[in-house]
């Protein structure tokens, strides 16, 4: 668990370069494999939210999914760097360093140790649809603003989900998306206009191996 002591040098090695006051989007996932939609979502968020950086947090595995075919962390990290191919997108293994699979632990650690940065959690609409199943999801929403990227045909299911309904009064107009990193949580925005619908599941073979060059 992330409550275990982590030596400062190991934490520092897992954190991309930053400067105080930087606006950083956090995109967590198994990246098994990483693909063009991860990159497109990140660049979309960089523009719409006026972020300085997006950090890809490559997880040890999704607690809500079967992880039997998950590739080794180092392979996923390197593949993510190859796909990102943008100096504004950084790849981090923070969750392996703090030994957690839970987003709440990651956010708590980042806010405690990097209090001078302004974080936004980035998720696809498919994740909003099941956000109420995440461990301590209400605490996550209370800790950091959230940007939800529309992923048709998930739009209706996402906006009708228990989490979206519970957090409805904290939704920020899409026209004010650039202000989201400066808003106190809870606050979230639903961003439309990105027309890319790849998924890691569709890029894996039945045995878990990755399909050809991306």
Automatic annotation (TrEMBL):
Pfam families: CTP_transf_like (PF01467). Keywords: ATP-binding, NAD, Nucleotide-binding, Nucleotidyltransferase, Pyridine nucleotide biosynthesis, Transferase. Its EC number is 2.7.7.18. It comes from the Bacteria. CDD domains: NMNAT (cd02165). It catalyses: nicotinate beta-D-ribonucleotide + ATP + H(+) = deamido-NAD(+) + diphosphate. One of its GO terms (molecular function) is nicotinate-nucleotide adenylyltransferase activity. It is an enzyme of class 2 (transferase). The keyword Protease does not apply. One of its GO terms (biological process) is NAD+ biosynthetic process. Residues 26-188 form the Cytidyltransferase-like domain. Belongs to the NadD family. HAMAP family: NaMN_adenylyltr. This is Probable nicotinate-nucleotide adenylyltransferase.
């Amino acid at each position: 668990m992330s409550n275990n002591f982590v030596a400062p040098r190991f934490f520092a090695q897992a954190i991309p370069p930053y400067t105080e006051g930087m606006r950083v989007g956090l995109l967590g996932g198994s990246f098994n494999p990483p693909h063009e939609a991860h990159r497109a979502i990140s660049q979309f968020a960089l523009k719409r939210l006026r972020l300085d950086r997006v950090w890809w947090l490559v997880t040890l595995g999704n607690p809500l999914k079967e992880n039997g075919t998950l590739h080794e962390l180092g392979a996923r990290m390197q593949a993510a760097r190859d796909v990102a191919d943008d100096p504004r997108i950084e790849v981090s293994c923070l969750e392996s360093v703090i030994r957690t699979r839970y987003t709440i632990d990651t956010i708590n650690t980042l806010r405690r140790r990097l209090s001078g940065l302004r974080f936004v959690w980035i998720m696809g609409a498919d994740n909003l649809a099941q956000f109420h199943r995440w461990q301590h999801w209400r605490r996550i929403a209370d800790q950091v603003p959230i940007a939800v990227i529309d992923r048709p045909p998930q739009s209706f299911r996402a906006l009708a989900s228990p989490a979206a309904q519970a957090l409805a009064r904290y939704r920020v107009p899409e026209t004010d998306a650039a202000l989201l990193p400066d808003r106190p949580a809870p606050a979230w925005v639903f961003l439309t206009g990105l027309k890319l619908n790849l998924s890691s599941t569709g890029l894996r073979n039945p045995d878990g191996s990755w399909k050809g060059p991306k």
